[in-house]
Amino acid sequence: MDKDVGKIIQLLKELNIQNETMVFFTSDNGPHSEGGHKHETFNANGPLRGYKRDLYEGGIRVPGIAYWPDKISPGTESDQPLAFWDWLPTACDLAGIIPPAELDGLSFAPTLLGKSDQQQIHPYLFWKYGNKTAIRKKEWKAVRNAKNNGLELYNLNTDIGETNNLSAKYPEKIRELEKLMEEAVKLLRP
Fold it and tell me: Is residue 155 located within the same domain as residue 110?
């Protein structure tokens, strides 16, 4: 990948369009254990719990790397929680066009362009895969792995690996996130 991305960057420079072209690399999910691949071999998800099709951070948290000379300052980092559904509004924003109505996503162009004080923030992020659901509101994340299982609760600021279930210690946070989760599920239904 490094070699081919380097070829793309070199071509952009040769064509003298590197300042008008953003190159972005990301993934839609964490590492997988399918087709004989063993994500544990190279510790593919580092300290994160889970992998593809899990709703723990190891299955849904992925890096994003952006390159755009004269627009994105080299070496900058952001820990702003964003989601894959933020891509369309971001692309529209950067292109100067109005995104389609009723999108769940938010443009993260302000974050990319070093204007984090102008960045809109999701009130929460919600995921559903089969009978598994998860919700994140700021540093708090609740995960339900089966329809009848209770919610697990994690503070991602202090436990990025989701190893310490805090649901018994913070029942009010569980109630808050469960209510938001129920609202989000209703929005999925036509």
Answer: no
Q: What value, to the nearest 5°, has the Cα angle with vertex 138 and ends 161 and 130? A: 65
| Residues 93 and 49 placed together within one structural domain of the fold | yes
Q: Note the pTM of the prediction, 2 decimals.
A: 0.86
* Euclidean distance between CA atoms 61 and 31, whole angstroms: 10
| Residues 50-94: tens digit of each pLDDT | 888 889 998 899 888 999 999 999 999 998 888 989 999 999 999
Q: Exposure string (b/e) for 79-112, b if CB count within 10 Å is 16 or more?
A: eebbbeebbebbbbbbeeeebeeeeebbbbbbbb
Encoded tokens for 168: 């018994």
DSSP annotation of 177 = H
- Rounded CA-CA distance 118/152 in Å is 33
HEC per residue, 83-142:
CHHHHHHHHHHHHCCCCCCCCCCCCCHHHHCCCHHHCCCCCCEEEEECCEEEEEECCEEE
Q: Clarify whether residues 93 and 138 are in a common domain.
A: no
Same domain as 140, residue 64: no
Check which CATH number belongs to the domain holding 130 and give it: 3.30.1120.10
